[in-house]
Amino acid sequence: xxxxxxxxxxxxxxxxxxxxxxxxxxxxxxxxxxxxxxxxxxxxxxxxxxxxxxxxxxxxxxxxxxxxxxxxxxxxxxxxxxxxxxxxxxxxxxxxxxxxxxxxxxxxxxxxxxxxxxxxxxxxxxxxxxxxxxxxxxxxxxxxxxxxxxxxxxxxxxxxxxxxxxxxxxxxxxxxxxxxxxxxxxxxxxxxxxxxxxxxxxxxxxxxxxxxxxxxxxxxxxxxxxxxxxxxxxxxxxxxxxxxxxxxxxxxxxxxxxxxxxx
Length: 263
Description:
Blueprint: H1 4-18, E1 22-23, E2 25-27, E3 34-35, E4 43-51, E5 54-59, E6 63-68, E7 74-76, E8 83-89, E9 92-97, E10 104-109, H2 117-121, H3 132-140, H4 146-151, H5 161-171, H6 184-203, E11 246-250, E12 253-257
Parallel strand pairs: 3-10
Antiparallel strand pairs: 1-4, 2-8, 4-5, 5-6, 6-10, 7-9, 8-9, 11-12
Protein backbone atom coordinates (compact mmCIF):
# COMPACT_ATOMS: atom_id res chain seq x y z
CA UNK A 1 0.00 0.00 0.00
CA UNK A 2 1.34 3.48 -0.79
CA UNK A 3 2.46 5.15 2.42
CA UNK A 4 3.50 8.71 3.19
CA UNK A 5 6.61 8.74 0.94
CA UNK A 6 4.75 7.33 -2.06
CA UNK A 7 1.81 9.70 -1.60
CA UNK A 8 4.10 12.70 -1.09
CA UNK A 9 6.06 11.77 -4.22
CA UNK A 10 2.80 11.52 -6.15
CA UNK A 11 1.76 14.95 -4.83
CA UNK A 12 5.02 16.55 -5.89
CA UNK A 13 4.85 15.07 -9.39
CA UNK A 14 1.17 15.97 -9.91
CA UNK A 15 1.33 19.54 -8.61
CA UNK A 16 2.99 21.15 -11.68
CA UNK A 17 0.72 19.13 -13.98
CA UNK A 18 -2.52 20.18 -12.30
CA UNK A 19 -2.18 23.50 -10.51
CA UNK A 20 -4.20 26.11 -12.33
CA UNK A 21 -5.89 23.53 -14.58
CA UNK A 22 -9.65 23.03 -14.84
CA UNK A 23 -11.16 19.58 -14.40
CA UNK A 24 -13.49 19.55 -17.39
CA UNK A 25 -14.82 16.04 -16.78
CA UNK A 26 -14.28 13.25 -14.25
CA UNK A 27 -15.28 10.00 -15.94
CA UNK A 28 -15.84 6.63 -14.29
CA UNK A 29 -18.49 3.96 -13.75
CA UNK A 30 -18.25 3.43 -9.99
CA UNK A 31 -20.09 6.11 -7.98
CA UNK A 32 -19.78 4.11 -4.75
CA UNK A 33 -15.98 4.23 -4.80
CA UNK A 34 -15.67 7.64 -6.43
CA UNK A 35 -18.23 9.84 -4.73
CA UNK A 36 -19.77 13.11 -5.89
CA UNK A 37 -17.07 13.58 -8.51
CA UNK A 38 -19.43 15.59 -10.69
CA UNK A 39 -18.94 18.34 -8.11
CA UNK A 40 -15.34 18.75 -9.29
CA UNK A 41 -16.27 19.25 -12.94
CA UNK A 42 -15.66 22.77 -14.13
CA UNK A 43 -13.54 23.62 -11.07
CA UNK A 44 -9.92 24.69 -11.19
CA UNK A 45 -7.16 23.06 -9.13
CA UNK A 46 -5.73 25.69 -6.78
CA UNK A 47 -3.29 23.52 -4.90
CA UNK A 48 -2.48 19.95 -3.99
CA UNK A 49 -1.74 18.95 -0.41
CA UNK A 50 -1.37 15.77 1.58
CA UNK A 51 -2.59 14.60 4.96
CA UNK A 52 -1.18 11.23 6.01
CA UNK A 53 -1.88 8.92 3.06
CA UNK A 54 -4.59 11.19 1.59
CA UNK A 55 -4.13 13.60 -1.32
CA UNK A 56 -6.10 16.83 -0.93
CA UNK A 57 -6.93 18.72 -4.13
CA UNK A 58 -8.02 22.27 -3.27
CA UNK A 59 -10.56 23.35 -5.90
CA UNK A 60 -12.35 26.56 -6.70
CA UNK A 61 -15.91 26.87 -5.40
CA UNK A 62 -14.70 26.02 -1.87
CA UNK A 63 -14.54 22.36 -2.87
CA UNK A 64 -11.98 19.70 -2.17
CA UNK A 65 -11.23 16.40 -3.88
CA UNK A 66 -9.84 13.83 -1.46
CA UNK A 67 -8.03 10.79 -2.89
CA UNK A 68 -6.87 7.70 -1.04
CA UNK A 69 -4.70 5.45 -3.19
CA UNK A 70 -5.73 2.27 -1.38
CA UNK A 71 -3.42 -0.71 -1.90
CA UNK A 72 -2.53 -0.32 -5.57
CA UNK A 73 -3.80 3.09 -6.68
CA UNK A 74 -1.79 5.72 -8.49
CA UNK A 75 -1.95 8.32 -11.24
CA UNK A 76 -0.72 7.78 -14.79
CA UNK A 77 -0.31 10.07 -17.78
CA UNK A 78 -1.27 7.24 -20.13
CA UNK A 79 -4.37 5.05 -20.01
CA UNK A 80 -3.75 1.54 -18.65
CA UNK A 81 -5.92 -1.60 -18.53
CA UNK A 82 -6.56 -0.76 -14.85
CA UNK A 83 -7.55 2.89 -15.38
CA UNK A 84 -10.63 3.45 -13.21
CA UNK A 85 -11.10 7.23 -13.44
CA UNK A 86 -10.28 9.63 -16.27
CA UNK A 87 -9.69 13.30 -15.48
CA UNK A 88 -10.20 15.41 -18.60
CA UNK A 89 -8.15 18.63 -18.55
CA UNK A 90 -7.82 21.46 -21.06
CA UNK A 91 -4.53 20.06 -22.31
CA UNK A 92 -5.03 16.31 -22.04
CA UNK A 93 -6.06 13.59 -19.63
CA UNK A 94 -4.87 12.06 -16.39
CA UNK A 95 -5.88 8.58 -15.23
CA UNK A 96 -6.38 7.02 -11.81
CA UNK A 97 -4.97 3.49 -12.12
CA UNK A 98 -5.96 0.90 -9.50
CA UNK A 99 -5.68 -2.84 -10.21
CA UNK A 100 -7.25 -3.98 -6.92
CA UNK A 101 -9.89 -1.24 -6.68
CA UNK A 102 -9.31 -0.26 -3.05
CA UNK A 103 -8.68 3.40 -3.89
CA UNK A 104 -11.32 5.99 -3.07
CA UNK A 105 -12.18 9.51 -4.21
CA UNK A 106 -14.53 11.97 -2.52
CA UNK A 107 -15.50 15.48 -3.58
CA UNK A 108 -16.60 17.46 -0.52
CA UNK A 109 -16.97 21.00 0.72
CA UNK A 110 -13.49 22.05 1.75
CA UNK A 111 -12.60 20.50 5.12
CA UNK A 112 -15.92 18.61 5.47
CA UNK A 113 -14.64 15.12 6.18
CA UNK A 114 -17.74 13.53 7.69
CA UNK A 115 -17.62 10.73 5.10
CA UNK A 116 -13.91 10.14 5.78
CA UNK A 117 -13.58 9.58 9.56
CA UNK A 118 -9.96 8.39 9.41
CA UNK A 119 -8.88 11.69 7.86
CA UNK A 120 -10.37 13.60 10.80
CA UNK A 121 -8.54 11.38 13.35
CA UNK A 122 -5.00 11.52 11.98
CA UNK A 123 -2.11 12.38 14.25
CA UNK A 124 0.68 14.88 13.50
CA UNK A 125 2.59 14.94 10.24
CA UNK A 126 6.04 13.46 10.92
CA UNK A 127 7.71 15.63 8.26
CA UNK A 128 6.24 18.86 9.60
CA UNK A 129 5.74 19.98 13.20
CA UNK A 130 6.29 16.69 15.03
CA UNK A 131 6.73 17.42 18.73
CA UNK A 132 8.27 14.69 20.83
CA UNK A 133 6.23 15.13 24.02
CA UNK A 134 2.81 14.06 22.62
CA UNK A 135 4.49 11.20 20.78
CA UNK A 136 6.09 9.95 23.99
CA UNK A 137 2.90 10.38 26.00
CA UNK A 138 0.97 8.43 23.37
CA UNK A 139 3.41 5.55 23.72
CA UNK A 140 3.30 5.68 27.51
CA UNK A 141 -0.48 5.41 27.56
CA UNK A 142 -0.64 2.11 25.67
CA UNK A 143 0.17 -1.53 26.28
CA UNK A 144 -0.19 -2.29 22.57
CA UNK A 145 2.86 -3.43 20.55
CA UNK A 146 4.93 -0.71 18.94
CA UNK A 147 4.17 -1.93 15.43
CA UNK A 148 0.43 -1.76 16.07
CA UNK A 149 0.71 1.72 17.55
CA UNK A 150 2.61 3.04 14.54
CA UNK A 151 0.00 1.64 12.15
CA UNK A 152 -2.89 3.32 13.99
CA UNK A 153 -2.00 6.76 12.49
CA UNK A 154 -2.49 8.61 15.79
CA UNK A 155 1.18 8.87 16.78
CA UNK A 156 2.28 9.87 13.28
CA UNK A 157 0.13 10.20 10.17
CA UNK A 158 1.05 8.28 7.04
CA UNK A 159 3.23 5.52 8.53
CA UNK A 160 2.45 2.06 7.20
CA UNK A 161 3.97 -1.39 7.12
CA UNK A 162 7.22 -0.68 5.28
CA UNK A 163 8.28 2.42 7.16
CA UNK A 164 7.17 1.18 10.57
CA UNK A 165 9.47 -1.85 10.15
CA UNK A 166 12.36 0.26 8.90
CA UNK A 167 12.03 2.87 11.66
CA UNK A 168 11.83 0.24 14.40
CA UNK A 169 14.99 -1.39 13.03
CA UNK A 170 16.87 1.91 12.99
CA UNK A 171 15.75 2.62 16.53
CA UNK A 172 16.78 -0.89 17.67
CA UNK A 173 13.31 -1.64 19.07
CA UNK A 174 11.40 -4.90 18.93
CA UNK A 175 8.02 -4.46 17.18
CA UNK A 176 6.33 -6.53 19.93
CA UNK A 177 7.39 -4.25 22.77
CA UNK A 178 4.49 -2.51 24.51
CA UNK A 179 4.49 1.22 23.98
CA UNK A 180 4.48 1.99 27.67
CA UNK A 181 7.66 -0.08 28.21
CA UNK A 182 9.85 2.45 26.36
CA UNK A 183 12.14 4.76 28.23
CA UNK A 184 12.25 8.39 27.18
CA UNK A 185 15.58 7.78 25.43
CA UNK A 186 14.16 4.82 23.47
CA UNK A 187 11.09 6.82 22.48
CA UNK A 188 13.33 9.64 21.28
CA UNK A 189 15.30 7.18 19.13
CA UNK A 190 12.06 6.00 17.52
CA UNK A 191 10.80 9.55 17.00
CA UNK A 192 14.04 10.49 15.22
CA UNK A 193 14.16 7.26 13.23
CA UNK A 194 10.64 7.73 11.90
CA UNK A 195 11.43 11.18 10.58
CA UNK A 196 14.77 10.13 9.12
CA UNK A 197 13.38 7.08 7.30
CA UNK A 198 10.47 9.03 5.85
CA UNK A 199 12.67 11.92 4.71
CA UNK A 200 15.05 9.53 2.96
CA UNK A 201 12.20 7.65 1.31
CA UNK A 202 10.61 10.85 0.01
CA UNK A 203 13.97 11.98 -1.38
CA UNK A 204 14.23 8.69 -3.30
CA UNK A 205 10.64 8.68 -4.59
CA UNK A 206 9.25 6.01 -2.24
CA UNK A 207 9.51 2.23 -2.52
CA UNK A 208 8.60 0.18 -5.59
CA UNK A 209 8.31 -3.48 -4.59
CA UNK A 210 8.58 -6.57 -6.77
CA UNK A 211 4.93 -6.38 -7.87
CA UNK A 212 5.64 -2.87 -9.24
CA UNK A 213 2.14 -1.69 -8.29
CA UNK A 214 3.55 1.63 -7.11
CA UNK A 215 5.08 3.87 -9.73
CA UNK A 216 5.42 7.62 -9.87
CA UNK A 217 2.96 9.42 -12.18
CA UNK A 218 5.64 9.69 -14.88
CA UNK A 219 6.18 5.91 -14.72
CA UNK A 220 9.47 6.05 -12.83
CA UNK A 221 9.93 3.59 -9.95
CA UNK A 222 10.82 4.63 -6.44
CA UNK A 223 14.34 4.04 -5.17
CA UNK A 224 14.09 3.51 -1.42
CA UNK A 225 13.53 -0.26 -1.75
CA UNK A 226 17.27 -0.60 -2.32
CA UNK A 227 17.78 0.68 1.25
CA UNK A 228 15.33 -1.59 3.01
CA UNK A 229 17.18 -3.11 5.95
CA UNK A 230 14.46 -5.52 7.08
CA UNK A 231 11.20 -5.10 5.18
CA UNK A 232 10.63 -7.96 2.74
CA UNK A 233 13.97 -9.57 3.68
CA UNK A 234 12.87 -12.61 5.67
CA UNK A 235 15.74 -15.10 5.99
CA UNK A 236 18.32 -12.70 4.57
CA UNK A 237 21.22 -11.44 6.71
CA UNK A 238 20.73 -8.41 8.90
CA UNK A 239 22.88 -5.54 7.55
CA UNK A 240 24.19 -4.89 11.09
CA UNK A 241 24.83 -8.28 12.69
CA UNK A 242 24.50 -10.78 9.85
CA UNK A 243 21.82 -12.82 11.62
CA UNK A 244 18.65 -13.82 9.73
CA UNK A 245 15.74 -11.41 9.44
CA UNK A 246 12.54 -12.87 10.89
CA UNK A 247 8.94 -12.30 9.85
CA UNK A 248 5.89 -12.54 12.10
CA UNK A 249 2.43 -11.03 12.25
CA UNK A 250 1.67 -8.04 14.45
CA UNK A 251 -1.81 -6.49 14.35
CA UNK A 252 -2.52 -8.72 11.36
CA UNK A 253 0.37 -7.34 9.31
CA UNK A 254 3.56 -9.06 8.21
CA UNK A 255 6.39 -7.60 10.29
CA UNK A 256 10.11 -7.92 9.61
CA UNK A 257 12.82 -7.44 12.22
CA UNK A 258 16.20 -8.63 13.47
CA UNK A 259 15.84 -10.49 16.79
CA UNK A 260 19.44 -9.66 17.74
CA UNK A 261 19.50 -5.95 16.91
CA UNK A 262 15.92 -5.40 18.08
CA UNK A 263 15.92 -7.41 21.28
